[in-house]
Amino acid sequence: MMSIPATMKVLGVGPALCLIVAVAFLSDVSVEFLMRYTECGPSKSYSYAGIMRESFGRLGSVGLQVCVVVTNMGGLIVYLIIIGDVLSGSRSEGTVHLGILQECFGDHWWTGRAFSLLLTVLIFMLPLLLLKRVDSLRFTSAVSVLLAVIFVVITSAMAIIALSEGKTKSPRLLPHLMKQSSALDLFTAIPVIVTAFTFHFNVHPIRAELSNSSDMTSAVRLSLILCSAIYAAVGLAGYLLFGDATMADILSNFDRGGGSGGYIGPFITDTVRLSYALHLILVFPLINFSLRINVDGLLFPKAQLLGSSPVRFYSITGLLLGFTYLAAIAIPNIWALFQFFGSTSAVCLSLIFPGVIVLRDVHGVSKRRDKILAASMISLAVITSTIAITSNVISLFGK
């Protein structure tokens, strides 16, 4: 959500909006594929890893679990980086953006990223991470969605006011291609959108706790519509406000200095940043839920359920949280993470794995039309990911 405005800066408004709709549609198709194979076999695989095991054996389930671990761990690191940017500021291309703590209390050791994130992790996140059922997070998840909507309303209102006063930046409707490398750079924005719609690892855990499992399809489609609207609104509003100055994490633009253009009041900027930081704190446990399950599945494939073993549960929870915290301190920028995970593990979870399950069709339930769509999904994912990775490598070594 915070990087969608940056994708509009790279792609232009028109292609970015089209890409959001296209990836949302493919996500809906891929989830429908997974639901179709959930109860097909005699063993009734009630998990994503179980479906991959039925289709490709132990190697398939391990590959799926590795991708979930990489994607979710990357996502949690990104969350902490953004929270750190809100509280303790960030640096980008020589520009310093102060955090709320530094603006209010000055630059001290206790307003720095390491200490502020440590307190956030221990006081706010750890109690939620110790909950053993995903439905225990339903209220915090509902509040997080409400906060996201509030963020959309505030940024959209700011963009409308700035537009009426003639203070908005001029957005590009189409990408600006000056050289061959610019065309390749367009593909580096695609993984960000793919990552934004990668939720497949939570489909089965949530479905298992619904009173009526058939409601999952409707829930997914409603969620995709809501997320698409939120992404489009935030992307357009953020890009209108900041134009080519839009940063990879747009919250860094909402400081009290030049990043906000000087026409956004300090109360509004702090409200925007704190509300979204709280949103991430409340979303963090839901992403960690699937991460913890899949780490346990990799390390202890034949052990009893994780919730029934307090030692394993608390040990894995603590180790994952500690690693995520240390990584967020060491990694300064979220754009590089989105490019990497979106080009590899996220695209596998959201497009490639559902596609190969349909092509494998071990239960013979897919029609020819489904296999053509699955093959198209895989081809599109492989081509765009390969170009994105190539562009990143060229950019890295070219510099």
UniProtKB/TrEMBL annotation:
Keyword Metal-binding: no
Keywords: Amino-acid transport, Membrane, Transmembrane, Transmembrane helix, Transport
Transmembrane regions listed in the UniProt entry: 12-35, 56-82, 114-131, 143-163, 183-201, 222-242, 274-291, 311-331, 337-360, 372-397
Localization per Swiss-Prot or TrEMBL: Membrane
GO molecular function, one term: L-amino acid transmembrane transporter activity
Residue intervals of the Amino acid transporter transmembrane domain: 2-384
InterPro entries (UniProt xref): AA_transpt_TM
Topology in the lipid bilayer: Multi-pass membrane protein
GO cellular component: organelle membrane
Protein name in the entry: Amino acid transporter transmembrane domain-containing protein
